[in-house]
Amino acid sequence: MLKFAIISIFLLGIIGQALAQQERKYIREGNDLFDKQDFEKAEVEYRKAADKKADSFEAAFNMADALYKQKKYDEALKQFSALAEKEKDKKRLGEIYHNIGNTLLSMEKTDESIEAYKESLRNNPDSEQTKYNLEFARHQKQQQQQNQDKNQDKQEQNQDQQQNQDKNQQNKDQNQEQNKDQQNQEQNQQQNKDQQQNQDQQNKDGKQDQDKQQQQQGQPQPQEGKISKEDAERLLEALQNDEKQVQEKVQKQKAQEQKAKRLKIDKNW
C-alpha cells in the first residue's frame, strides 16, 4: 500500500520566548523518538509537552502525527479535527487537513478524504503533495467503483447461475416425480391385469367345477367301504320276507282262481 508522507511539524518557525524550557525539551525528545520510528514513546513525550503548555500547537500536531503512525486512526482524526476547529493560520490549516485526508483515506473513507484534501488546497493551494494525494484518492474511488460494478456483475451472474441451477433442479424434480407417477401407473395397470387374469382363471375353474358337478348329478355314487355282517343279514332277511310275501300272494291268487273255476263247473251242472 502506498505510504503517504505526513506533514510533521518539528519546528514551526519562530518559537516564542514564552514557551517553557520543559515543553521544548519534551518536544525535542519526542522528535528524536519519532525519527527513530518509536512512535509510541514519541507520543508519550508529546503529551508531556502538551501538559506543560496546553495551547502548544506543535505538541498537539506531532502527538496526532504519532497516533497516525501507530494506526490509531480514530484518535488521530479526533486530535487533528480539534486542531482544525481553533486554528486560524491558513498554512497550518492546509497541513492539518492534509493529514486529516491521509487519516480518512487510511480508514477507507475515500469520499471524505477527497473533501479533506480539497479543503487543504483551499488553505494551501501550492502543496504539490496534497494535489498528488487528492488525485490518488480520486483514482482509488474510481477503482472502488469499478470493483463494486464488477462485484455487482459477478453477484448478478451468480444469482442468474443460482436461478438456472434452481430451475434445473426443479425440472429434474418434476421429471423424477413424473417418472415416479408413470411407474406407479404402470404398476397399478400390471396389478389390475394380474387381478383380472386371476379372476378369469377363478371363473374358468369355477365353471369347470360346476360343469363336472352337473354331469355327476343323477348318477349313483359308489358307496365307499364294505357292508357289515349285521347289515348283510338284515338285508338277506328282508329279501326273504319279500319273497315269502310274494309267494303267499301268488298262492292265494291261485286258490281264488281254482275256487272260482269250481263254482263255475258246479253251476253248469
From TrEMBL:
<feature type="compositionally biased region" description="Low complexity">
    <location>
        <begin position="181"/>
        <end position="201"/>
    </location>
</feature>
<feature type="repeat" description="TPR">
    <location>
        <begin position="94"/>
        <end position="127"/>
    </location>
</feature>
<feature type="region of interest" description="Disordered">
    <location>
        <begin position="138"/>
        <end position="269"/>
    </location>
</feature>
<dbReference type="InterPro" id="IPR019734">
    <property type="entry name" value="TPR_rpt"/>
</dbReference>
<dbReference type="Pfam" id="PF13424">
    <property type="entry name" value="TPR_12"/>
</dbReference>
<feature type="compositionally biased region" description="Basic and acidic residues">
    <location>
        <begin position="202"/>
        <end position="212"/>
    </location>
</feature>
<feature type="compositionally biased region" description="Low complexity">
    <location>
        <begin position="158"/>
        <end position="173"/>
    </location>
</feature>
<feature type="compositionally biased region" description="Low complexity">
    <location>
        <begin position="213"/>
        <end position="225"/>
    </location>
</feature>
<feature type="compositionally biased region" description="Basic and acidic residues">
    <location>
        <begin position="226"/>
        <end position="269"/>
    </location>
</feature>
<dbReference type="InterPro" id="IPR011990">
    <property type="entry name" value="TPR-like_helical_dom_sf"/>
</dbReference>
<feature type="signal peptide">
    <location>
        <begin position="1"/>
        <end position="20"/>
    </location>
</feature>
<keyword id="KW-0732">Signal</keyword>
<keyword id="KW-0802">TPR repeat</keyword>
<protein>
    <submittedName>
        <fullName>Tetratricopeptide repeat protein</fullName>
    </submittedName>
</protein>
